[in-house]
Amino acid sequence: MKTGLMMMSVGTAVAQTVPTVHIPLNLRFGANHKTSTDVFIPSLNTTLEVVYDQGSENFFVFGPDSIANWGLTCLGCQGPCNASVPAGNYLDYPRSSTASEPVPFSSFYGYGGLDKIYVGEVAVNETFDFINNAGQSTKSPDTTVAIVNYLQQRIGNDGTCTPVPIYDLGILGVSPYYHSNNETGRNTTGPSFRQDLLERGLINAPVQSLWFDEAPSDVRGTYTGGGLQGGIDTSKYKGPLVKVPITWQPGQVGYYVPTPKLSSNGIPITTGSASGEVTSCLVDSGTHNDDIPVADEAAFLNATGIRRSPAGHIAWPGTCDSIPADKTIDFAFDGVNEGESVTVKVPIRAYVRVGLDSDEAAGYCSLSLEPSGCILGSPFATAAFFAADDERGEIAFAQGAVSKPGTTVDEASVVARIP
Hints:
6-stranded mixed beta barrel; 28 strands; disordered N terminus; 6% helix; 419 residues; 38% strand; mainly beta; 2 domains; Cathepsin D, subunit A, domain 1; 6-stranded antiparallel sheet
């Protein structure tokens, strides 16, 4: 099955010199929200929030008669609890006038060490619009998507069947496309959205970039931005775009970089963990929080002003609105080239992505942040411009969050490779 995709322009049209495909993005406030695009199916008048995931390879959504299963803590176990995926939360392809006939396609997608397992039996081609809250839209006709019909979740207790655990309605994976050989140790089964674009000639190289616009004025507001396939919009960042080393190992999925040096408003934060040194970080827009490698939690809290709430959560000691706009956690990465480095400043306000009643009742603001491990997730993405060239094995960062919400891709500023 093949895909085609064309761009729906917003605003004044400019001649496209580098063939690219723009995916409008959101990061909403609330439990389980991650970097996402809204997938609208015109023929069904249905919109699905789908995770735009640097840590996944494949594109899938739920289909009709899908079941969510849970209720046991053991790994890979089918639980006693089942719920139907509600109407409006799946692609009802038998009723769509633009969907192809389904073809057999056996899919198995595991996440979080198999805490979540999605399986399916078919794939279809469908026409979508990718949209965001800033009013941007890109049409995607005849696009291949796997249809899953079963989700099994491992949760924190046995036998509790209410409420239904939250889950993702679909994932648009934008990790590299892996070939089965000794170099990668993986084989992308598909559907690979990026590889389809490349094979159809809609982009010329496996290059991509990701950015978010300026932060919303409401600390709980929706961030908007874009993922660009096939090129890099140099108008979406400030300062240098610096290539950084890659620490990816065969068998891994996604983009890995060395652990950055950490500080907060000039105060250094020693990196590491209770179990020793942390040397590698996963860049993962499909994760709702950031995990950062802090060697001394007390020193981290003193440097940032963050605290543990009475319930034990990482939180700000006050209302979310009271967090100073200029208070940041700073991630400094050494460059590939000697003498080069780049610092990404992430406002602490960017970590206000989920509200916990117990924290708010105690006068604290919950933060989507953990001082352990190293995952540069959706909060990091709101401040960092990311670029990758899979063909040349390059990753680069710059300071993002500079464009106005709804600003279109500046075709005159798009380049085909990382400068």
